[in-house]
Model the fold of this input.
Amino acid sequence: MNYSKFTIKNFRCFTEEQTLQFAQPEIDKIGSGITYIVGANNSGKTTIIEGLWIKKGHYLNDSERKEQPPEFKLYSDSTNIKKTVRLLRDNAYLFIEDPDRESSQNTDLFEVVSSRRHWESTANGTDSSNNVVAGSAIGGNPRNQQNVQTAIFLKAIESDSKKYEDFTNLVKRIIPEFTG
Done:
């Protein structure tokens, strides 16, 4: 099923309803159907991804919502899927799927691939490469997710000291903050 748009409202920085139109795949057009989310820092990019990522049973803190309950909607040509919240206890809300929706439908709708922050280097004194692969890109919070393929690639670089040194020098040239 292809989804055409996503709306988010009353969640973190989004008090008014905002719409994200999804790119639609076209036959024989390489790269079509890929939606890029770009914007300035602190503009809500990750919040949008988290809105898409939220699954049934996810708890939402009171600090993450506005006066009205958060609302997330996915649209396709034939369906409207709605995610809402209900009060579970003071200051905690639980996401529930739209009761009109068939419970047997798949809730894993998207593959989210981050194009930045893929690697927390061992050069900083922590060996996070093992955690990256074990964490995978399935489940969890997208703010903490690592792209598994990138993690495997970087783990291979780290296993060869010459490749690791070359890679680290390249990163230091491109991203000066890496050294600090």
Observations:
- Residues 3-97 form one domain.
- The radius of gyration is 19 Å.
- The chain has four helices and six strands.
- Helices lie at 45-53, 129-135, 148-159, 161-174.
